[in-house]
Every structure is written in structure tokens, then in C-alpha cells.
Amino acid sequence: MTSPRLHGPLARALAPLARQALPLLLRARRRLTRDAYARLLHGYRLDFLQARRAWPAGIAWRLLDVRQMTPQARAYRLQAPPGLRHRPGDVLLLQWHNGDADVQALLARTGWPADAPVRLPGGGSAFLPAPPVQGRLADVLREHLDFRGAAPPPASQMPQAWLAALPRPQPRSYSISGLAATPQGEVVEIIVSDVAGGTGRCSGHLARLRPGIDAVRGWPLAFPLHLAAGGSAPLLVVATGIAAAGPLHELGRAPPRPLWLVVGLRELAAGQPFVQRLLDFAAAHPACRLDLALSRADAGPPPAALPPNVFLHARARVQQVLAAEQARWTAHADAQGHAVLIGHARMGADVQAWLAQWLVASGRAADAAAAQQRLRRMERSLTLQYSLSGD
Ligand SMILES: Cc1cc2nc3c(=O)[nH]c(=O)nc-3n(C[C@H](O)[C@H](O)[C@H](O)COP(=O)(O)OP(=O)(O)OC[C@H]3O[C@@H](n4cnc5c(N)ncnc54)[C@H](O)[C@@H]3O)c2cc1C
């Protein structure tokens, strides 16, 4: 999330005014906008602003333990400070920092002394000013600069300009997938996928934390994805892999409604904790339908313990399941059902393309352009929502 940047003496004079004005502006825009998605977004920005002001350095969640949920994803249980309350559907916006090995590699490459003193301007904005950054070079590189992927530094002396131009680490969002009250405070669970072979900035940082010793800092936020938007209308959730975990947790605590889940997995690995969580949800909610698109599994006899409301699709992706279940989707849409797409951006694009085709083929849109307009209207009314990431 970015906020406008102002520079110079005028900016410094206006900054306090801007700080006061922004919450008022966001509140007014939230009230006035007719676009339901824009309203959620203004609400999210306000929430973010208030959380950053309430806890400028973030809240510290202590890592209790880590559990492998799939070969590529781990569940982290985090102990919140006493008194902090989370809501199902919240995300944790978590800060990360570089690993020591990456810092040492950069220092070795450049020959810069780890102890050299560094002072950089604060990386904040007019609305959320940040103090200047100063300290030992190794610490500043580790904590305050996102140097991965930057053009290599010049092979000269201390390149202050190179350091000052580097972006600051941007926090990452993780959906709450479990929540438990304990006498010490709430314990939240997030499930995090490995990306980039385990070297992702924040996912890699989380993987380096030591259970029982380290903490991670950040802010709990109400994410602008609103599973309750349709009230009691039927809801379809399409998710890739562990992205289904947040919605399962939220829906498990929400009033019952007609529910259809289409989840993409590589295979149905028996005994895998995440697969078990999906099957347990289906068993506990017999009125819901769970379609599993198994991209790398061949058709075979279903496992004996499969609940009757779970349907397997071999060598299929989620959009192919929707195509195979087109009559069901049409009935869902005709019943004013809502749809939410959660997970990888490529899946979102594939499902969107399928929806556009369906709108034209079913006579709901005259052509591809009209289908796109229709999709935008569905987004503005929250009939169709997305939470997508990755590239
Ligand atoms: C609202 C919201 C909720 C989210 N909830 C979760 C969650 O519960 N669990 C979870 O694991 N992630 C979740 N994400 C994604 C998460 O915020 C990060 O984007 C993800 O962990 C990668 O961040 P990173 O810093 O580790 O990777 P980066 O260092 O930013 O990226 C390294 C490389 O990995 C690839 N990459 C980046 N993101 C993804 C991705 N999502 N999938 C595949 N490849 C990617 C890219 O090639 C990138 O160049 C959520 C995102 C949003 C917006």
C-alpha cells in the first residue's frame, strides 16, 4: 500500500495537516462511494493507517511451533500479546528482514566493512513519516533495505547513493487459518507456501525463525475480501492449495449458507495435514460441496474415507472443474450466488477468462467487451471478489 510522497520544506509544513486529514478523507470516501469494492478498500486503508499509528513498530507475535502441512507449505502458530483480539478473515501484515547469509554475501562481494556507519533518510510518507535509519552497515542492510534484485553496486567506495535508492522492505499479508484463546493470549495460525525455492523474502524469513525463541512483527488487518458480502446467498470459493485455509477457518465460524468449494491441489496425498483439514471441513459441513481439482493425479479409485460431498477431478485445474460443472455454476449464478477467487494470480486470470467465455456463450453478454464490463459490475457489487498474488 502506498501513500502520496511529498518533498521539501512545504511538504514538512503540510505533513501534520496531511496526517490529520487522511483518516477523515478515507472515512468520507468510504461513506460516499457507490462501488462496494472501493468501499472495502477505503476501509482497509483506514484500518492499515490506524494500525500503523497504534503500533508504529508493529506487534510482536512469538513463534510457538511450525508444522509441515504439505511438502511446500508450513503452518506457523504464533502467540499474540495478551489482550490482542483477532477476527476470522483478518490477515497478518508481517515485516521481514534479510537473512545474515545474504548480507554477508553482499559485503563479501563489495568488500564494504560491516561496521561502517550509515545514515539514510526515513522511508515513510507524508502520512506516516519514518525516522532516519542509522547504524552499522551490516545491520542497516539486514533490517532496512530490500537489496535483492537491485542492480549490482558500483565497485568503488561506500556507495551512499546506491543504498539510499534501494526500496525498503514491504510487509506481506498472510491469512489467519486458525485462532485459539489461551490464558497467555490468542494463538493464531498462518499457513505459508514456499516460493522461489524457499528463498522468498518474507516466506524465507518466516522459515528462518526459531520456535520458542524468535518473534515476527506486523499488524492484524481486516482484509478487503468479504466472504460475508452475499449474506445468506450461495457462495462459491475457488482456491489454489493452501489459499483455501483462511476461508475454511472463516466459513467454519460463519452462519451456514449454501457453499461450494473448488480447490486446486497437485494430488490427494493421504494423511497430509492440509488434505485432512479439507476433508474434515467437508465432513463437518455435509451440505457443502467440495470439488478437488487434482492437477498431477491420474483417475483411480477414491480413498475409502472420502466424505460423500467430496468430488475428485483427475488431471484437472479449477477452471476445468467449473467448465465440467457448468450447469451447477449457471444455477449458482441464477440464484444470485457470489464467487470468491483466492490464490495464485494465474488461476485468477484463467478463471476470469472462463467466466468471460461463459457470459458470452450463455447469452448474458453480447461479446467479449460486454463480458468484461459485466465482470467489472460483478466486482463492484462484490458478487465476484478476488484475493490473488504471485506473478
Ligand atoms: C490478502 C493476501 C493474503 C495472503 N495470504 C497468504 C497466505 O495465507 N499464505 C501464503 O503463503 N501467502 C499468502 N499471500 C501471499 C504472501 O503475501 C506473499 O506474497 C508470499 O508469501 C510471497 O512473499 P515473499 O516475500 O516470500 O516472496 P518474494 O520475495 O516477494 O517473491 C519471490 C519470488 O517468488 C514468486 N512469488 C511471489 N509471491 C508468490 C506467490 N504468492 N505464489 C507463487 N510465487 C510467488 C515470485 O516469482 C517472486 O519473484 C497472501 C497475499 C495476499 C495479498
Question: Care to give the gist of this entry?
Answer:
With 391 residues, this protein is of the alpha/beta class. The chain has helices spanning 8-32, 36-54, 100-110, 137-144, 160-165, 201-208, 245-253, 273-284, 318-324, 326-334, 345-361, 368-380, and strands spanning 59-70, 73-79, 90-94, 117-120, 133-136, 172-182, 185-193, 215-222, 235-240, 259-265, 289-294, 310-314, 338-344, 384-389.
Overview features:
single chain; 391 residues; alpha/beta; Rossmann fold; six-stranded parallel sheet; 12 helices; 14 strands; 37% helix; globular; binds flavin-adenine dinucleotide
Summarize the SSE layout with pairings.
Elements: H1 8-32, H2 36-54, E1 59-70, E2 73-79, E3 90-94, H3 100-110, E4 117-120, E5 133-136, H4 137-144, H5 160-165, E6 172-182, E7 185-193, H6 201-208, E8 215-222, E9 235-240, H7 245-253, E10 259-265, H8 273-284, E11 289-294, E12 310-314, H9 318-324, H10 326-334, E13 338-344, H11 345-361, H12 368-380, E14 384-389
Parallel strand pairs: 9-10, 9-13, 10-11, 11-12, 13-14
Antiparallel strand pairs: 1-2, 1-8, 2-7, 3-6, 3-8, 4-5, 6-7
Helix pairs in contact: 1-2, 9-10, 9-11, 11-12
Bound molecules: flavin-adenine dinucleotide.
Flavin-adenine dinucleotide binds at residues 91, 172-175, 190-193, 195-196, 200-204, 223, 246, 344, 387, 389-391.
Give an overview in words.
The protein has 391 residues and is of the alpha/beta class. The chain folds into 3 domains: 10-54, no CATH class; 100-165, no CATH class; 227-389, Nucleotide-binding domain of ferredoxin-NADP reductase (FNR) module (Rossmann fold), CATH 3.40.50. Helix content is 37%, strand content 25%. The chain is built from 12 helices and 14 strands. The strands form 3 sheets. It has a 6-stranded antiparallel beta barrel, surrounded by 4 helices. Helix 1 (8-32) packs across helix 2 (36-54), helix 9 packs across helix 10 (326-334) and helix 9 runs parallel beside helix 11. The protein is globular. The two termini are 18 Å apart. 29% of the residues are buried. Residues 1-6 have low confidence and may be disordered. Bound molecules: flavin-adenine dinucleotide. Residues 91, 172-175, 190-193, 195-196, 200-204, 223, 246, 344, 387, 389-391 line the site of flavin-adenine dinucleotide. Flavin-adenine dinucleotide is lined by residues 91, 172-175, 190-193, 195-196, 200-204, 223, 246, 344, 387, 389-391.
